[in-house]
Amino acid sequence: MHPTLGLFASQFTKRKPIKRGLLGDIRGKYLYPIKQTKITPPPPPKKPTKPKEEKETVPWRTQATYQQSLKGLYGGKHIQFGNQISDFGNKSRRTWKPNVQRVKLYSEALNEQLIIKCTPAALKYIDRKGGLDRYMMSMKDKELGKKMYDLKYKIQSKIIEMDKERNRLSRLDVVKEGDEGETGEKRIS
């Protein structure tokens, strides 16, 4: 044992008993007192918390950035960020915004012209689909903002109403044409 440790060992033995030897604690060979662990009762059970109210999920799209795109047909276009680099290599932040135009688009179902904010990309998609109504019906609800979601379902309800009316009229035409007796003679009314 080191001579200086012997000086301190006598003080430690007065305070607390020291465990030594192979079966003693790891700190026993250094002659430090062993900390006795206190047995503490388990903490009381936590009070049941109120279940968190789940946020209402909406069928239309929501997003944190560039919320302007939720109010029109942007065809997936979004604001972009980058650097403008000078001749000397200095970088300064800048943005590239979509080319948004206010456009009058005709809806065949509603039979009116609607003023909608559009990008040229969205106008190209509308032409490919064959008009505003077909484009809106092909869009998923999660791709549209609230305003366009409402427009889509306004168009959809009008189309369903028109189909019902068309079916009703076609049944009336069939009844008028097939208004024959059992002998095959046409009735004159």
TrEMBL record:
<dbReference type="InterPro" id="IPR034704">
    <property type="entry name" value="Ribosomal_bL28/bL31-like_sf"/>
</dbReference>
<protein>
    <recommendedName>
        <fullName>Large ribosomal subunit protein bL28m</fullName>
    </recommendedName>
</protein>
<feature type="region of interest" description="Disordered">
    <location>
        <begin position="34"/>
        <end position="59"/>
    </location>
</feature>
<comment type="similarity">
    <text>Belongs to the bacterial ribosomal protein bL28 family.</text>
</comment>
<keyword id="KW-0689">Ribosomal protein</keyword>
<dbReference type="GO" id="GO:0003735">
    <property type="term" value="F:structural constituent of ribosome"/>
</dbReference>
<dbReference type="InterPro" id="IPR037147">
    <property type="entry name" value="Ribosomal_bL28_sf"/>
</dbReference>
<dbReference type="GO" id="GO:0005762">
    <property type="term" value="C:mitochondrial large ribosomal subunit"/>
</dbReference>
<dbReference type="InterPro" id="IPR026569">
    <property type="entry name" value="Ribosomal_bL28"/>
</dbReference>
<dbReference type="Pfam" id="PF00830">
    <property type="entry name" value="Ribosomal_L28"/>
</dbReference>
<keyword id="KW-0687">Ribonucleoprotein</keyword>
